[in-house]
Amino acid sequence: MPILKSQLTTKFPFRNPHVNTLYKFFTNKEKPTYQRKRITTWDNDFIDLDFLTSDSFSAVLLIHGLEGSSESSYICSTANYLRDQGYDVIAMNLRSCSGEDNNILKTYHAGKTDDVNFIVNYLIDNYNYTDIVLCGFSLGGNLILKYLGEYNQTVPSNIKGGIAVSVPIDLTSAQAELSKLKNKIYMKEFLRTLKSKVILKSQKFPDYNPDKKLIAKASTFRDFEEIYTAPVFGFDGPEDYWAKASSKPYLSSINHKTLLINAKDDSFLSIDCYPYEIAESSENFYLMTPKYGGHVGFVSTFNDEVFWIENQIVSFIQNQLNTYS
């Protein structure tokens, strides 16, 4: 039942998903005037939160995608738009993504929901927010969907729901899609920063001694998961990680109203990342699949001031979650 229909009206050349994706990724957006708060974690590490406040009792927790940060273009535009609508915004920087390497060998991965749970409870324990909405993009969206399904019995009442944008909910098939030639430019950029982080970790932690030649040769996510994610986080291998970290198996367990927006032309996503049957049989999980938008793009024209995706986020918050600033 909860399949929402809303189409992005695009003009040339933004009907090309790569133009839409790259334009949003590399367009400089006005950086919000964040106030940073460093949170010490249970494992002697830290997570940096960037606050953009408007003295509201309603807040939105934003989580960026792979190798992004609170300064990613899509986070900046969303944070500013939400602030202008009267919401407080907390942009969560995943471990190692705030401009400073984290303290321990482990950083983050697509299914590491214990960090999301930790930050949610921190916000509830330390701030007077009566309503908190979770909003994630790409990998951050996978974290939010998995968290809401995995922790469905213990999600605090202050959490009103979630919104996830451009999410590879099935990591096994999505990584295969990203490994195709059409996505070579994105894969190369992701691996450029991921490889540098692995080298840094191997220098800081002598017991972690990956083969430097394998790091240099790594050209797919499978290569990276074998070098870092699987051994460091205790998975049996890339396939085990992808299966356990994917949010798709948790969607049916979500009992808070939650929206997933995946553009049909997103070159990062496989057919398994469009869960129509799950949405049709759910009372809480909503799905929207506009024809155009690319990956975390959703731009309609040059110098776009329409803010289509930001509008969809606020509309869902106000109309479905009944949360007002």
TrEMBL record:
The active site is at 138 (charge relay system), 266 (charge relay system), 295 (charge relay system). SUPFAM superfamilies: alpha/beta-Hydrolases. Residues 59-293 form the AB hydrolase-1 domain. It comes from the Bacteria. InterPro entries: AB_hydrolase_1, AB_hydrolase_4_sf, AB_hydrolase_fold, ABHD4. GO terms for molecular function: monoacylglycerol lipase activity; short-chain carboxylesterase activity. Pfam families: Abhydrolase_1. Belongs to the AB hydrolase superfamily. AB hydrolase 4 family. This is AB hydrolase-1 domain-containing protein. It comes from Tenacibaculum skagerrakense.
